């Protein structure tokens, strides 16, 4: 039922139940409303029950009006992507940390509580943004010197955070973590990569024996080819 139709039914009910006097409606509507459109069932309700129905009708009208005429705020076009960074080694709070932006090496170290002990390291790379899935391994080379090795998180951790695996770096054991890829198929993928030197695109997986369109579609999002 449209809003306009519902309003007419409601006016008919209010007029015939005498909860609102006849004069409350414009003259052009009274003829149409006086035709006895009120459902026969309402005759069996007392005046008190009809008042309750009146309140419920107003409440329903308010909900319908809000639903059809109110405009919800437009969702933001900017989609926030979580950036996952793991920090291990000589930091106070080693672990996996999530950022809402691409953090610098300095931000990641500070998020992990900072270094356990003061040390000297190359600060030139401190301002470089880190990509999601990065593993920072902080090691103490000497009493004063600290070295930060930038690696990639382990495959099972990447999959937990829906971070695709690089086809040119993934191992046979990593491939077997995925549903639909057993040792035999994983071996075929590694063999293809070694024979071709590297993957140029994820779509090249379709060239491998045992991977049809259906299987490719089922796990293509788990992979990426980095330059």
Task: Please give the structural blueprint.
Layout: H1 3-16, H2 27-33, H3 47-69, E1 83-89, E2 95-99, H4 105-111, E3 134-140, E4 146-152, H5 155-160, E5 165-166, H6 172-175, H7 183-196, H8 213-219, E6 223-224
Parallel strand pairs: 1-3, 5-6
Antiparallel strand pairs: 1-2, 3-4
Helix pairs in contact: 1-3
Number of domains: 3
| Counted beta strands | 6
Residue share in β-strands: 5-15%
Strand order of the largest sheet: 2-1-3-4
Query: C-alpha Rg, in Å?
Result: 34 Å
Low-confidence stretches: 17-37, 70-80
Task: Report how far the terminal alpha carbons are from each other.
Answer: 58 Å
Helix tally? 8
Broad shape: flat
Order of helices and strands: HHHEEHEEHEHHHE
Major sheet summary line: 4 strands, mixed
Estimated helix fraction: 25-40%
Word description of this protein:
- The protein has 227 residues and is an alpha/beta fold.
- Helix content is 36%, strand content 13%.
- It has a 4-stranded mixed β-sheet with strand order 2-1-3-4, covered by helices on one side.
- A hairpin with a 5-residue loop joins β1 and β2.
- The longest helix is centred in the N-terminal third of the chain and has 23 residues, at 47-69.
- The protein is flat.
- The chain starts with a helix and ends with a strand.
